[in-house]
Amino acid sequence: MRNSDSILEFKNVSKNFGGLQAISQLSFRVERGQIFSIIGPNGAGKTTAINLITGFHQPASGEIFFEGQDLKRKRSYQIAHLGIGRTFQNIQIFQNMTIRDNVKVGLHTQSHSGFLRCLLHTSMVKKEEEMIRRKTDRILEFLGLDAKADLLAAGLPYGDQKRLEIARALALEPTLLLLDEPVAGLNQIETDEMSDIINKIRANGITVVIVEHDMNLVMGISNNITVLNYGEKIAEGSSQEIQNNSKVIEAYLGKEI
Ligand SMILES: Nc1ncnc2c1ncn2[C@@H]1O[C@H](COP(=O)(O)OP(=O)(O)OP(=O)(O)O)[C@@H](O)[C@H]1O
Ligand SMILES: [Mg+2]
What we know:
By secondary structure, this protein is α/β, with parallel strands linked by helices.
């Protein structure tokens, strides 16, 4: 363990796509138990940062540590199993499955019953099925989706699909949850509900990293904020520090934040 309080650390991380420098010498540290936001204008490199943490991309240089462990060359599924869950800017759920089954898919990856045991249908398998059913119910209740559990994902309102994606990520029991634009496309009531959900997730001991354009949400919910512009970190601090930072105001071209 490099630092007892730090769950995630970027050290001089760079990533380019051909000639385009998407992330440049980026360093930051997320303390355990925080809600940490990454903000910045379109194309600033926010999603790329999440894709680097989750193994969708590899850094060109620099290091990323999760709980003191270097994530270099780890595959996405390995990183998920280390305890990092995520949602996507463009929702990725199984549209032709029910809400319940979408969550179960996440839980089955934790199952320990092998093929032979399943064939014999031992008591261990039964116990595991029961455990999965109970966990699924608990997660769906937590996200307020229990009443809709048997509906197909495809027919759900957008706000429910966003919550389902979080439910599925939680099924893996992450210690770190990465949310890429959790309130994009949501109305004010849904946004407030999502804010409560994120606070509840943190209250359950999960560290949360949010990428978001909704400044009301970010300023209200974050313990710490990092601001990217053209792949570079231009500021880091509390909501108040960020709102009064001249570089940040300039990057947003006078937009009120
Ligand atoms: N797979 C890719 N191939 C080529 N270029 C990419 C790829 N992914 C991202 N980029 C480019 O890298 C830069 C950063 O993109 P990224 O998606 O990280 O931005 P972002 O901060 O998430 O923006 P937004 O707020 O619009 O979602 C952009 O210029 C984007 O076009
Ligand atoms: Mg993005």
